[in-house]
């Protein structure tokens, strides 16, 4: 982990934002009516495979972009839990 603390916080913010946007966006696109992954007759054309790819890219991209800056704790719950247990400074 390199750089000042503010760059680490900014990297974590954008990493989490990318995960939420791609992962939850894939779920919304699969299940909301009138979206591109949802068929016109109400059947989902995206399904679990589309959602898995969305979350997969949502984890991979921040890891590649921000992993060297902040350590890639893109799930704030894990970071807070580790800090509460004394594992994460």
Automatic annotation (TrEMBL):
Any one Pfam family match given in the protein's UniProt record, by short name: MIP
InterPro entries, per the entry: Aquaporin-like, MIP, MIP/Aquaporin, MIP_CS
Record keywords: Membrane, Transmembrane, Transmembrane helix, Transport
SUPFAM superfamilies: Aquaporin-like
Membrane topology value: Multi-pass membrane protein
Cellular compartments annotated: Membrane
Segments passing through the bilayer: 9-27, 47-66
Family to which the UniProt record says this protein belongs: Belongs to the MIP/aquaporin (TC 1.A.8) family.
Record protein name field: Glycerol MIP family major intrinsic protein channel protein
Originating organism: Lactobacillus intestinalis DSM 6629
């Amino acid at each position: 982990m390199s750089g000042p603390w503010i760059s680490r916080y900014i990297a974590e913010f954008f990493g989490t934002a990318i995960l939420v946007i791609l992962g939850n966006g894939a779920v919304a696109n699969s299940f909301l009516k009138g979206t591109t992954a949802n068929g016109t007759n109400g059947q989902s054309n995206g399904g679990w495979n589309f959602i898995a790819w969305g979350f997969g890219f949502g984890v991979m991209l921040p890891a590649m972009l921000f992993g060297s800056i902040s350590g890639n704790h893109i799930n704030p719950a894990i970071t807070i839990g580790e800090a509460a247990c004394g594992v994460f400074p």
